[in-house]
Amino acid sequence: QDLFQSPDYYQLDDLLSEEHKMVRAAVRDYIKTEISPIIDKHCQQATFPSKIIKGLGNLGCFGPTIPAEYGGGGLDYISYGLMMQELERGDSGIRSTASVQGSLVMLPIYKYGTEEQKQKYLPQLARGEMMGCFGLTEPDFGSNPAGMLTYFEEDGDDILLTGAKMWISNAPFADIAIVWAKNETGKVQGIIVERGMEGFTSPETKDKWSLRASATGELVFDNVRIPKSNILPGAKGLGTALSCLSSARFGIAWGAIGAAMDCYDTALRYAKERVQFERPIAGFQLTQKKLAEMITEITKAQLMNWRLAVLMNEGKASAEQISMAKRNACITAIQIARESRQILGAMGISGEYSIMRHMMNLESVITYEGTHEVHLLITGMDITGMNAFK
Ligand code: FAD
């Protein structure tokens, strides 16, 4: 049974509009009724719960900030953040599916596509009638995507795409892939590759211990013939790919704290009920230290996320500010998951509770969309003006 009580120590709810609260309530309710009852089984069996796609589309979780004329929600960044927070409270894999679809598939088409491409893909993607994935990472180029080897050549009205992407969320079932590849002059461009194009395959990556309810795979392109009309004309240069990552990272900052809130809430309730040495373990100072530090860190991260959303709404947030929030949320959530698991003792490793699942998921969340180290170097470069990457 899902007993989640959302922690709000600094009364941040006072800063939310009625619309924000309605959006949050709708997603929270959906998680309670549709996700929590099935998610442990899907993680244990490493299967993606594909039947939820329609529900996520109906809830507006795909492309919440995309204008309504293209099927998006036309919502602000606080609503978007709250949606991601609630989805990841359910499971990071569910939030990942929504992040990829909205920020990494719909957003590049919306920002860099032609009017025809927008009309063709966005409404279907928003409803979940079509699913997408985002191929940037390659076997030999993760943190340094500029080195990518995937390339294309022009051939009349078509291009021929060759290369391979790895660790791609939603790849095994996606209908389209936004693929980043180098043109003949070495410049990175974004291309829409469609399922069924000859020479394009997407084998599933098996045996993951993290994000088990999310389907991850490779994208393999063996001289795939693609019409030039599938090139995103505005997506030129790696910076365009990275700008979509900024939107997804914003969602991760809120999402990871959703997972942390769930761990804290579970541990707090358990500690009040679990009796050892004839008293609830919540009465021991060592348990209180864990819980008090958790709620302090959650509150700090909630404030950071909220302020970041306001800056996003005003068009003033920098990529570096987003990096800081993503990094902070991921490390905070991982530490809270570990401490929460300790509080539950042996029960902490059981699928009966969500904590161990969150803890394993967060190991991916802290790595994808820029690792913990990469985001630290982004902050370092921003404050010193010196590039420590190379
Ligand atoms: P590497 O880049 O090889 O890094 C290994 C280690 O070295 C890390 O700790 C890193 O921080 C460190 N390191 C690297 N460079 C430096 C440096 N300059 N200074 C200090 N330390 C450094 N990618 C996509 O394109 N699309 C997706 O949908 C997607 N989904 C994913 C889903 C999952 C479950 C996972 C696990 C990954 C996914 N990724 C996706 C890939 C992800 O973005 C990469 O794994 C990530 O960018 C890191 O790349 P890497 O794994 O190659 O690690």
Describe this structure in words.
One of its GO terms (biological process) is fatty-acyl-CoA biosynthetic process. Residues 17-129 form the Acyl-CoA dehydrogenase/oxidase N-terminal domain. One of its GO terms (molecular function) is glutaryl-CoA dehydrogenase activity. Helix 1 packs parallel to helix 3. It is globular, with a radius of gyration of 21 Å. The protein has helices at residues 18-45, 53-59, 77-90, 92-112, 115-127, 238-273, 285-313, 319-343, 355-365, 372-384; strands at 132-135, 151-155, 158-169, 176-182, 188-194, 200-201, 216-227, 231-236, 275-276, 279-280. The mean pLDDT is 97. The protein starts with 17 loop residues before the first helix and ends in a 6-residue tail after the last helix. It is of the alpha+beta class. A four-stranded mixed sheet has the order 1-4-5-8. The structure holds flavin-adenine dinucleotide. Flavin-adenine dinucleotide binds at residues 100, 133-137, 142-143, 167-169, 211, 216, 364, 367-369, 371, 373-374, 377, 389.
